[in-house]
Design a protein that fits this description.
Largest sheet: 5 strands, parallel
Distance between the termini: 13 Å
CATH topology of the largest domain: Rossmann fold
Strand order of the largest sheet: 7-6-5-8-9
Bound molecules: N-carbamoyl-L-aspartate
CATH class of the largest domain: Alpha Beta
Radius of gyration: 19 Å
Oligomer: single chain
Length: 313
Amino acid sequence: MTNPFFGRDIISIRDVDRSQFELLFSFANELESSSYSKKKDIASGKILGTMFFEPSTRTRLSFEAAMLSIGGGQVGVQDPKTSSIEKGENLADTIRTMDCYVDVLVIRHPMEGAARFAAEIASKPVINAGTGSEEHPTQAMLDLYTIIKESGAIDGMKIGIIGDLKYGRAVHSLLYALARYKPKVYLISPASLSLRKEVIRDLEPTLSLSEHGTLEDVIEELDVLYVTRIQKERIPDPQEYEQLRGSYVVDSKILEKAKSNAIILHPLPRTSEIMPEVDKTKNARYFKQPYWGKLIRSALLGLILNDEINTKF
Ligand code: NCD
């Protein structure tokens, strides 16, 4: 079988179709059940380069751990202040330099378009690890995979997405990824954080969407509740953030109304939108998501780096 990920940039989740998701997920399943000695051939002698111009815990660490788990190595810029960017070097020159050292690049940047810019400059594959409010494609891959692993399917599921639908890049990529399947999606947010009209127009032909002001209106119906934090750093007016803070919260009281097998996801970090009391409920799966995330990123790196992946398994 040809491998559609080989040598490819991953900039937007809109470039990934359902059959490609299915290939990625089945390869992740294979990786989970194989030993390290078998896995390490996949990236042996290969180097991952990470360039993070915004804070990250899970995305950077899971890319690094993923690369190590398939036998590769990694180098990275975690803090632009300790690189030549601090001396005035521009982004293009930093990318050109990293491109000489590594086999695949991962970039996170506050500006929309930065990953595509990097892909135009680099000769090696570039993976978008989050650009502005725009997209976070590998988060969407791990979110879909988590739903399948924890709930069994995506088609036919009732999925609520609550929080900052306007500035959240994880939300945007997740919605475009869900549009490859047949779920029913409930958008839940304060009015000023609702999904932008142009995104709704884009999605409507392929995804069943409805908008709601409060979780109470829909909680009883949901199979999956995907919670997001307000993107404080992207809201232009600090006063607006203060007004919105605490405007929605998932606590054990609201969960009393949820289906007993509903699952709760969150890309993390959380701030105050999920109460700690929810962590110990059987519905909480947001600390399982990073586990599936590392596996998905291992599978993605493996597929990007190897044309003939099947011969290794
Ligand atoms: C998300 C991001 O960076 O967009 N975090 C992550 O990668 N897990 C979500 C967020 O920061 O709210």
